[in-house]
Amino acid sequence: MKKGDFKKLLSVVFLLVLAVVSFSCFSKSENKEEKTTTETTTSAVEQGQKAESSGKDVIVIGYTSSQTGKFATESREQSNGLKLWVKDVNANGGIYVKDLGKKLKVVLKSYDDESSKDRVQQLYTRLINEDQADFLISPYSSGLTASAAVVTEQYGKILIATGAASDKIFSKGYEYVYQIYTPASRYLTDAVDILKQKDPEVKKIAIVYENSNFAKSVATAAKKYAEENGFKVVLFESYEPGTTDFTSMINKIKASGAKAVIGGGHFTDGETLAKQINDAKLKIDLLSILVAPALPEFSEIGKAALYVTGPSQWESKVKFSKETTPSGYEFFGISAAQFVKEYKNAYGNVPGYHAAGGYTAGLVLERAIEDAGTLNSNKVKAALDNMDIYTLFGHIKFDTGEYHGRQIGHTMVIIQWLNKNGKLSKEIVYPEKAATAKIVIPYCSKF
């Protein structure tokens, strides 16, 4: 190799080595810079989360309502009651959270569940993951609430269950679900007591009910209670949701010889059943139906509503207030009378128990957050476990044992549609200490 060629070769090798070293240094520098940027970004996210936590200025409460589908009537009232509570609490500056040292206003986030269980699960997942709801209120009905509870329990989120009376929900070991209503197992037991006290000649009862979780649990408990009290249940039969023709069921009631009919399901089927029993002029002493008679809209069926009785979680004529609260208990929130006044002003009609339940769900959550002093779900849960208060809805206390979260404080009343000065009027007829009128028996005396 010539001397000149050798020099050229050395120059090429030198340049190659220089390029490799330079690339290596540049690569290390670039990786170091990339790593630093990642660490800085992570630190910024953490700082942002802390800032967001300390700077939180609203409490997001999520729920679904049945704007469409078979639960639309009851769900609308429940939602109206909840919205009225939000209006009241925000007018007072919000809910005081001790850990943050300030009041936070409440923001509602809701969707139409279309009375569909599948849609409920999708929407509660969305409320938790996308809408970042702090707490949740149940849909209306036991079936929809059972679907929501599966989701909320999975995420460890508090679910205040209003409009849901099924005991079955609370037999699954849930820790974050709390019931506002008196449980289904106690819904129709008062109707049996009325027969025993006011009409002891009646011995045969027909129980007809909608094939749904709620109605089935009510009917099963009522059957057991009636038989324990010496009655013979001569017909125990379900009908499918959406039934509009009860002719065959009414014929079975006639053939059974029953002198009392109890059961039902929800508003639409209950209203239809009452109307068709009236049209058939069924010769019975007592007709007691779930849900429908307690709603103001029930009067729209006219004479068919007369003398129909039904259990009610709450009535606008109850007197719950600070002044009527038993000694040793605290009253929280506005009085029942004040609630009725506000609701009428807001919506133009007298509230039923679904509306009162909606308002009370918010009220109970408000009290639990204030007692806990934080938005931490586990600490709010502890406050709910310890709750033992009176509200416009009556006594509120939760089971902390085998049926955790089930309502054990609240009790029901029995209402009956009566003729007052030529107009239908919904009156409390049982228990007598709460009655606004005397019960009319037999039901068939109107024919």
From TrEMBL:
Keywords attached to this entry: Signal
Domain of life assignment: Bacteria
Record PROSITE patterns: PROKAR_LIPOPROTEIN (PS51257)
Family the entry assigns: Belongs to the leucine-binding protein family.
The protein's name in its UniProt record: Leucine-binding protein domain-containing protein
InterPro entries reported for this sequence: BCAA_transport, Leu-bd, Peripla_BP_I
Pfam family, one: Peripla_BP_6
Transmembrane segments: none
Domain Leucine-binding protein: from-to ranges: 59-418
Signal found in the keyword field: yes
Cross-referenced CDD domains: PBP1_ABC_ligand_binding-like (cd06338)
